[in-house]
Amino acid sequence: MRSARQIARRGLQLGPALTWWTVLLVVPVGLILAYSLFRRGTYGGVVYELTLDNFERVVDPIYLKVLWFSVRVALEATVVALLVGYPTAWFIATRPKRWRTFLLVLVVLPFWTSLLIRTYAWMVLLNDEGLINNTLESIGLIGSPLSLLYNEFAIVLGLVYGYLPLMVLPLYAAIERLGPDLREAAQDLGASGWRAFLTVTLPLTRSGVWAGCLFVFVPSLGNFIVPDLLGGGRSQMIGNLIQVQFLKARDWPFGATVALAVIALMTVVLLIQAWMNARDRREEVPGAV
Amino acid sequence: MTMIRTTRMRGRLATIAAAGAMATGLAACGSEIEEPATSAGATTAAAEAEAPGTEKGTLTISNWDAYTPEGLIPAFEKATGIKVKMAKHATNEEIMGKLDAADGAGYDLVFVSGPFAQALHKRGWAAPIDESKVPNLKNLYPEATELGYDPGNQYSVPYTWGTTGLCYRSDLVSEKPDSWNDLLDPADDVKGKTTMLATDRWLLLPALKQLGYSANTTDEGELEEARDLLLKTKDTLLAYDDTTFYSKLVSGEASLVEAWDGWCNYGIAENDDIEFVVPKEGADLWVDAMVVLESSPNKDAAYEFINWVLRPDSGASVVELLTYKVPNKAAMDELDPALVEQFPNLGMDPAELLQQESLQDLGDGQPTWSRIVTEITS
Amino acid sequence: MRSDGGRHWASGAVFLVTVAFLYVPIAVLIGLSFNASGLPTSWGGFTTGWYDRLFANDEILSAFRNTLIVAVCATAISVVIGTLLAFGLERTVRSRVLDAGSFVPMVIPDIVLAIALLSFYNLVFTQWMGVRLGLWSVILGHAVFGIAFVSAIVRTRLRHFDDSTVEASMDLGATELQTFRHVTLPQIAPGVIAGALVAFTLSLDEFVIAFFTAGTEVTFPIQVYSMVRFGVTPEINAAATIVVGFSLVLMLVAVRLRGQEDTA
Predict the structure, then answer these.
(1) Residue pLDDT, tens place only, B133-189
(2) CB B328 within 8 A of CB B140
(3) Residue C214 belongs to some domain of the structure
(4) What is the pTM of this model?
(5) Does residue B228 sit within a domain?
(6) Cα dist. B8→B74, C153, C154, C180, C255 in Å?
(7) Which structural domain, as residue segments, surrounds residue C157?
(8) Is A182 near chain C, with CB under 8 Å?
(9) Do C105 and A87 touch (CB under 8 A)?
């Protein structure tokens, strides 16, 4: 039997978010996704005749190819972001306290200017006659320009560049909590620097790692600017595909179907994560050292 | 002792900061909510009560950025007393998407390309053009009243028009191009230095014309042939580019690109080795037009605006400042010959222009087109 | 005692390389903002003319002001509601469904959310209530994903929270509110700050939802994306440079203030 106090607490904590999301997310998006059951009108719009055609269309090999490419590129970007972001977050978290926020903002600051502007700047840097190739050629490292633009490398670079702070920030929050005591304790128990890291620190920052990876993977999947500009429009990602369906093809029912497929896929991943989470919580001892 | 004190102070500071931020935040947000509801001249039901019998309201227009010459709007506002609010869209598809989601409401007048004007009409959102209120329609070329997507200009009025072709650096190519094949199957010196337009209608255009098909075809067999041709071309391309292709020509990153004639002029303005040619297989006729929305409570003001745009001096300023062709005969007749010398495609005869195929909405064929484009670009 | 061992200098090195990586394009766009030639591919000489044009360009300035308003408001809302949600999910309720559900807003493709919101706003606000869309409608939309991000980050902070400090505080006679302010809040503060930074950053550069739901208002991303016709003009680069410079100055001032506070 819950006390009135506990119910009030639940209401205060969960209420605002759940209300906000029900009114401004579940209802509107649900209505749009429901379009996947209907047909496109001749000039756009929705004709309310029930059909499952869209679901048949979405499993076409071309769309699966786009999905696979997107997942692969988004994973690559996530891994690179993690490899770069973890040490960066670690460095910031281990500085004296008053510098931490400043360093965080230093890392985040570039992202307060438009991604589009910075992407164009990358195009200037990466193209065959751009700064990077020119510099490398003039110091004799390479003979002919490296192909740095309009390919997968450029897309991954662009995505990492675009979403790095979303990896660093949650990692920072998780690492900073640990404090030096925990790291010392691990060493006192005999673990060397690396082993201490792998067996103690990394697992304890797991939720930060998970959040950071999610924060980079999901937007990467849905991004359409980077593949268009840095990829030279030579590859489509899921973000482009959905955009095309809603805006260019004016095929809302099919666009809704593709979106539904992506959301469903991601929700499965989230549920698995939630399961693992619940299992962790039962296992760990709260408030350890 | 010191630790407790700093903890307490930090906590206090944090609380004050948080409270302060929230308070200012919510105050600012609150004021934002009030403002729109009370602002005058809105295009909603609330404002409709204002419009009849009162002084002219505000005209809300959506257009591409920098697509109206700088002096035009202020001159219009001064002469008519109508206030104009300019909204921007970067692509046709965006403004269509917005109108689609808002059921044709939100603006008085929009600038869109021909096929989209046609779609707006078919969805019931375009208001018929009241010719009695737009006397300057007489300034248009007769050819500009026979446009495929809206014969007789019943629900749209053309603003600019042109065609698509090959824009190239004459100093970087060994032979001057004259056929779409020069782009689709490029010579060795040009390979890897070409771009094609990324928007579906213009992506497929060169292949369709090369194969002798219509630019508005919805036949799957024809589209698949075009796709196969374009897949071969893809390996020789530098990139698909809708926006920076002309600067690539200027910098030399590219030597031969598919371009709209007006855009090629931006390149010509920077580097006079750049030239434009319409391939011998033919190209399209694209038109950017003004459409008055049926939902608008300011239709009369919209017609006045269109009338203003159709003045000879307005048309002339569009040509001078945007280096685009306008279907305004009165304006084109007054053109400075030096301008035409620098930008030869401005001198294109309307009869010649009309030999190109007018782009129209693809109707039910649109999803097939989008799918073919996905197959090419993925 | 440096118990981090060899990893310490390695993380410093990575940090430096990362910062360099992050700021190289910024350096490029700062450079381009002084480029007399309008095109990014050729240098036409040094000029401050673009800055003059920028300050005379009301459109860009008001777009930037609008973006700031939206970002601050959306962040404020996201921080409050997101933190509450984090507490709810970590402490009060153990639900795997809610746990997964709290991440779903991030997973919705932004074009879908944008169109969904516009259709919804159109039905409820425009047609029924006759209220015009504006910055407020963008704020509502941005908070939808902002709440999710803040909640996720604050939760990582709460995950291994040391409840004994809370218990100790209560045992010593502090009320719940006092405990929250003086014990809990300082410990989750880095998470809240990080979450706020994420929500703010995301809102500042968000285009799709803003474009669809801002009515005729213009935010900075909308302005920039609409200027894409010609690539990016030096004026926009100048605006971006100002953002960077201004924010940097702001942060330096904040650090100095905090430094003074710590020694007080």
Answers:
(1) 999 999 999 989 989 999 999 999 999 999 999 999 999 999 999 999 999 999 999
(2) yes
(3) yes
(4) 0.85
(5) yes
(6) 59, 24, 21, 12, 19
(7) 7-246
(8) no
(9) no
